[in-house]
């Protein structure tokens, strides 16, 4: 059996407190009660949870809570959950600035150390709380956000290739193959290179991660291509 292409499920976080109050000075707000319900409903209706190999989430509280409410049942021990600061929202407003790891550990005490190690360097090569500064890769201007989105697409390409290789090496086994990415509405536009995308809270859309014909100076460009409607679950 030939390996099947992994799908990338882009998920927008559920309703957050600042979405309702419009108080953008609240640092790293969590979900509203309605948001928790939206995320739980996402998990209940999500196509084939058992096919998910890894969940990669923004480390902002509303994204982590969406991840836990929707996908907590398939994240035993945290070994297939990665918190990646590259997925944080575009702006430098307080509501889009994350919390220090020490605060997140108190907020999510059940997470094993492997989760915090992913936030400290496994994906984005960060050290501690540097990702909170909104400088360099994390600056809010369009050029830096565009570059950050390119890096995320390359990360997704590498994860997908590892899954394909595992499928080839374990032919006949029913391996998990799909990737869930929980992120934010504006950053999603940069990630997909689609200014029109505007998913509802706790909404999702599926993509393939592919090499484009064009080169970016460091090899072929990596793009997200929407899964054709005929292939949607």
From TrEMBL:
It holds the Pfam family His_Phos_1. GO terms for molecular function: phosphatase activity. GO terms for cellular component: cytoplasm. CDD domains: HP_PGM_like. SMART domains: PGAM (SM00855). PANTHER family: BROAD-SPECIFICITY PHOSPHATASE YOR283W-RELATED, PHOSPHATASE SPAC5H10.03-RELATED. This is Histidine phosphatase superfamily. It comes from Triangularia verruculosa.
